[in-house]
Amino acid sequence: MNEVIQGLKLMPIDYYIAFCSILFVIGVIGVLIKRNALVIFMSVELMLNSINLLIAAFSVYWNSASGQILVIFVMVVAAAEVAVGLSILVVTYQNTQSIDMNLLKRLKE
Amino acid sequence: MLTISLILLPLIVSVLLFFMKGQKASQQIALLATLAELAIALIAFTGFDKSLAVNYPLLIDWLPKMGFSFSLGMDGISLLLVMLTAVLTPFIILSTFNRENKLPASFYALVLMMQAALVGVFTSQDGLLFYVFWELALIPIYFICGLWGGENKVQITLKFFIYTMVGSLFMLAALIWLYTKTPAPHQFGIKNLLLVIPTLSPVEQAWLFAAFVLAFAIKMPLFPFHSWQPDTYTVAPPAGSMLLAGIMLKMGIYGLLRFVLPFRGNTLSTYGPVVIVLALIGLIYGSIIAIKQQEIKRLIAYSSFAHVGLMAAAAFALTRDALAGTIFQMLSHGVNIVALFFVADIIQRRTNTTQISELGGIAKQAPRFAVFFMIAMLGSVALPLTNGFIGEFLMLVGLAQYSMAVAAVAGISIILGAVYMFWLYQRTMYGETKPASESFTDLTSTEMLVAVPLIILIVVMGVYPKPLLEIAQPAITEILKYIH
Amino acid sequence: MEKYIFFGLSGLAIFSAIMVLVSNKPIHNLLYLILCFMAIAGHYLLLNAQFLAVVHIIVYAGAIMVLFLFTLMMLNLNLKLELNKSLMARIVAFVSGLLLLVTLVIILNGLVIPTPKTATTQIGMTRDLGQVLFSEYMVPFEAASILFLSAMVGAVMMVNKNK
Amino acid sequence: MKTLTALVPLLPFISFLVIGLFFKRIPKLLTSVLACGTVLISFIFSIILFVDLKNGGTATNVTLFDWLPSANANIGFSLVVDQLSSLMLLVVTGVGFLIHVYSIGYMHDDEGFNRFFSYLNLFVFSMLILVMGSNYLMMFIGWEGVGLCSYLLIGFWFKNQDYNNAAKKAFIMNRIGDLGFLLGMFMLYIQFKSLDFNTIFSQTGQFQTGDTFITIATLLLFVGAIGKSAQIPLFTWLPDAMAGPTPVSALIHAATMVTAGIYMVARSHALYILAPTTLLIISLIGIATAIVAATIAIYQNDIKKVLAYSTVSQLGYMFIGLGAGAFTGAMFHLTTHAFFKALLFLAAGSVIHALGGEQDIRKMGGLKKKIPITWLVFLMGTIAISGIPPFSGFFSKDEILLHVYVQNKIIWALGILGSMMTAFYMFRLLFLTFFGSFRGTEDQKHHLHESPAVMTVPLIILAILSVIGGFINIPAVFGGASSLNNFLSPVFGTTQTSAPEVSHGTELGLMAIAVVGALALIAFAWARFVKANRIPAGEETQRYGLENILYHKYYIDEIYNLLIEKPILFLSSLLHKIDVFVIDRIVNEFGSVTVWLGARARLVQTGNIGFYLVAMVLSIVAFLVFGLMI
Questions:
Q1: Domain end position, chosen among B263, B291, B319
Q2: Distance from CA of D630 to the nearest CA of A (A)
Q3: What are the counts of helices (DSSP H) followed by strands (DSSP E) for chain A?
């Protein structure tokens, strides 16, 4: 196993950067084009994950545990965020019978 | 130590007053505090050493990494203006004694806070600190005008506030710009900032010059940035008008002397005349408008506007006499305008009107008041042996040294000043007694406490100006050193 | 060998991510997302971040996705038609996204990343991470638990309010 | 001597302070004693100073304290008594004292009695500062101070807004002149680095005659004199100033203040003789004023207005004298004029007093018998001003005209013409007032009475002075010693052409022409107003041609009103409108634009989250791109 890992460590960091960027942008596009709040949440998770992965990659690259700790904290926050977010969603749905983001416009009125 | 106590004393009393209630007690506390302040200022005055560049210095590091320190001190100009503040504030407070105010304690607290801020402005030796006090002074006067003012107060006060605020933002920008140009580590000390100016490119200097002048021009105010002034003076409570015209306006001129005149050489000689021309336009323009004003305070406002124009013009004449005149005129204008606003206040309180057409024949009813008004007016029209003359004479001499034509134009204001002031006096004091002024009572003893010292100040400053003029001399030398 | 694993996992992740966007049924979206997360977990493994990989699976696939699924089921959203934005809006969104990608790529390309120190330590191992977490990051860790608590309370409060 | 010098102006000032501060409490008697007493003491001191100088003493300089330290000079609050100011001191305190005494009677029933005397004392103080100041700034203190007192006293009865307007007009016209004075002063200050008379005059040697600088400076100073001494074009305030109580007219607007301009030019003679152009202009303005005022006086019907125009005209003569370089002559005429014009005004006051306030000569007449003392002294004054020998006016006017003759024959001829007119209108005034039958109301007739002794005694003293005043400077042609010339020579020195190069024959001939001309016109006046008993037409009468123009004083007031007052008032309204509707509007528009922009910007906040998100992403892109570019 160790050898595999050693080999993998030679994987250029650039690849990770490129991969995570693509994943991130897909998340962004998802947020932008969808009206379904649930899917938007998913896209956000996608973005978070892409960043997490990049942090983890750099953590290994720099040989520093802090990066991975950070990932854990991000996960913590993400979980909390999802819990609160979804409850908002439920409340919204109860009020409007919809989870269309565009309807949230009414908040301003 | 002396300087900081001058700021702290009113500030602390002000904070205390905010928690107080009741008219009488707060009045007396405020008056006592200002008298104590005056005593300290007098100590500073007597102990002043002309040979030192900065007297009573105080230096506390504040943000040492940013080169920003709590640095106070006085040169001659500062001292004179501090004296002006310390002398006038007791009168301003005393002048409100007969007046029922809502929230009296807060009112006096704000006046004292104003005093602290003004002293701070005049004694700051640090650019940023100067700005802090500069803005701090705006807050109390905003509330004084906004809460105790007359008709339309909110709108007018807001305009005044935003207008001057915009001006001071330009100043802040200029200060920061200068700061970034100081040699590392950057310093905010006024001296450091001023030393940078000559090293800048002409374009930079021009922009900085414009920014500073704009800030001070709005404060003073200088033509054409004056339109907040007549409204504000009219709507502000009398004490507010006195603070504004008597002391606060001097901040603008003080700023000119401190920050603008040290622009040496080309910048000053290229753009200085622009300011002089604006000032002269304002001088004549304000005087002419004042002639037909129908409301006393508005008339006084325009007259003050005109006087300030002369001071600004003289400041840019850059001769020793002109600068001495400007400094002296700051003091005498402060005294005179407070006296005039006090007159307006008394008239308003007695007759409930300040419309000139409704007044008349007051001199018959109230001879002592007539004398007081007359002397205040004479000071304002610069009759010899009153304080106004010394300042105007020196300023005009200085302007004449700069250019005879400028002096001639500026001199027209002497004629116009006589026209509108005498016209005002004649219509309010002389003639047949009008219904509004029928039951006009003469000055009460409290009012005499304000009027008599003011009269004495007007005359004594006119007869023996020497000590005041001499105190300012080293500071003027300092300014001229920057220039030549 | 590693390359192939890397590219395979990456391809799988990107494909499933795209499918999240493309498919119209929320339940499908969700399943594709889980697939994507699995692929990312694989990446963690590849980085020898074993602890992270496990936590990732538990937290995301196990907890978060279940939460999503639960919401989905509870609101019975699956039957709803997918709400789509107008074509114009979608194009605009897509173009902005691409623009972002392009700029990101240009910028990141320009980055000069110093070569790392040679190291073979097992930082991704549970033991090592645990040591760091409970020594250096003790306080944030405890704070995180408070965060959780408050999130939980908040969520309950919100849903409860209307009843 | 120094103490004495300082006390001369100080005493009236102290009296002013005391009366002014306690004007409500102190009794009239005390006021009278205080006010007159201090001036009397000042007069006595002045005599002492005069005698000292007369006996060969030198000028006394006193610096009370440093007044105004400026960059170039330490301007002191300093006084000087030399021959010139000593002469003025005598006139001011002497005539001033008599008028003070007279005022006790004249103002006796006025409720503002104490106020009046405090003003009067302040005036005397200011006037003394004016003549004693040893530098231009000191002179300027007095200069403005007398202007203020003049304002206060013209508007003494302040219930009447017409009087107040007259007072204001006087002050403002004076201020116009003062501006010229100030500017002239500035030029001197910049050039000589001093305002001290001695310092400046001792440096005049560096200038050529006709130097531009000196010409301009002297012209500017002269502008001040024009305002103060009521010359064309700033003379219209003086007739209006007759609104004040009559003693004021006598003291301020005849004897002392209005002569300040002459004094100033005489004091600055060292500069003026270097500026022939200025002297010429002074002559021209002087003669024009003399003629214009004299012509106006011919048709005036207000007893004080006639005297006022006559004052303007006489001041014109003094300026002609100055223009011709006859500084002593001008000062001489100033002195005699102070005597007889004060006399005439006070006598007129006595007439007005007798008639209970009537000033229109059409409603007088036949007063000769009723108020004989007044009539006699008025006659003395009239003869004196008409230039009939040996009364004082003859000598002084003659000295001026002699100098003018040498300088410029045309001006001399005009001067003779003016002096003939003077004789005519003065005797017209005399005849209409005292001869014929009484034209006032029955009521007035019953109340006709001679004034009390406190008024008549000063009149008599002034009458005597008017008669003999000319003897202080009898010209050589009558075997005199020209004592005034000799006395003033330390001041004017060789600069003045004291002995014009004319033969005694010519000199006598010139005198004869003047006297004969005056007598002829007196005879004409006699024929017209006593023999034919013609009374000037009433107010509403239609007048034609020259008479109409003269009656309306050349419409000068109307012209000024149209050309200056109206435009300024219009400009004031206009500028105020501009201020409110343009300048303030622009400022307010800045506010409006901000509000408008805010309203527009608000629309961006649609609440559409999708839009926000896109905007956010694009902004991030923009930032990144921006970062890249840097």
A1: B263
A2: 22
A3: 4, 0
Indicate if B477 and B413 belong to the same structural domain.
yes
Clarify whether residues C80 and C15 are in a common domain: yes
Same domain flag for B227 and B277: no
Residue B459 domain boundaries: 265-484
Q: Which two tokens stand for residue B439?
A: 């039951």
Ordered DSSP codes for D164-208: HHHHHHHHHHHHHHHHHHHHHHHHHHHHHS--BHHHHHHTGGGS-
Nearest Cα residue to B234 out of B142, B156, B337, B141: B156
Give the number of other CB atoms < 10 A from CB of residue D29. Answer: 9
Asked if B208 and B357 sit in the same domain, the reply is no
Q: Which of D24, D65, D72 minimises the CB distance to B464?
A: D65
In the prediction, which pLDDT does B102 show?
79
| One domain, residues C18 and C83 | yes
Q: Give the pLDDT of residue B460.
A: 93
Confidence bin at B483 (pLDDT 50/70/90): low
pLDDT digits (tens, 9 = 90+) for D452-492: 888 889 999 999 999 888 888 888 777 777 788 888 888 88
CATH number at residue A15: 1.10.287.3510
User: DSSP code of B432?
Assistant: S
Question: Which among A49, A68, A80 is the nearest to C151, CB-wise?
Answer: A80
Contact C154 A84 (CB under 8 A): yes
Q: Does B306 share its domain with B400? A: yes
Q: Do D186 and B404 touch (CB under 8 A)?
A: yes
Query: What backbone phi and psi angles, to 5 degrees, belong to B236?
Result: -65, 155
Pairing of strands D74-81, D60-69: antiparallel
Are C76 and C124 part of one and the same domain?
A: no
Question: Would you call D621 and C100 a contact, using CB atoms and an 8 Å cutoff?
Answer: yes
The pLDDT tens digits for D200-231 are 888 888 888 888 899 999 999 999 999 999 99
- What is the torsion angle, in degrees rounded to the nearest 10, for the CA atoms of residue D301, residue D307, residue D309 and residue D313? 140
Indicate the residue of D605, D608, D617 with minimum beta-carbon distance to A102: D608
Range of the domain at A101: 2-108
Partner-chain contact D605 A108, CB within 8 Å: yes
Contact A105 D607 (CB under 8 A): yes
pLDDT score recorded for residue B484: 62
**pLDDT tens digits, residue range D523-578?**
998 888 888 877 777 777 777 777 788 888 888 888 888 888 888 889 889 988 98
For residue B88, which of B458, B333, B335, B379 has the smallest C-alpha distance?
Answer: B335
CB atoms inside a 10 Å sphere around CB D591: 13
Q: Please check the confidence at residue B259 and state whether its pLDDT lies above 80.
A: yes
> C51 lies in which domain range?
1-102
Residue B75: predicted pLDDT: 87
Domain count for chain C, please give it. Answer: 2
pLDDT at residue B254 in the model: 93
CB atoms within 10 A of CB D597: 10
Closest CA to B479 of B305, B310, B330, B326: B326
- Does residue C17 sit within a domain? yes
Q: Are residues B109 and B191 in the same domain?
A: yes
What count of CB pairs under 8 Å joins A to C?
224
- Asked if the model's pLDDT at residue B267 lies above 90, the reply is no
Residue C95: which H helix or E strand, with range?
A: helix C87-110
Domain count, chain A: 1
Provide the domain count of chain B. 2
Whether D153 contacts D120, CB under 8 Å: yes
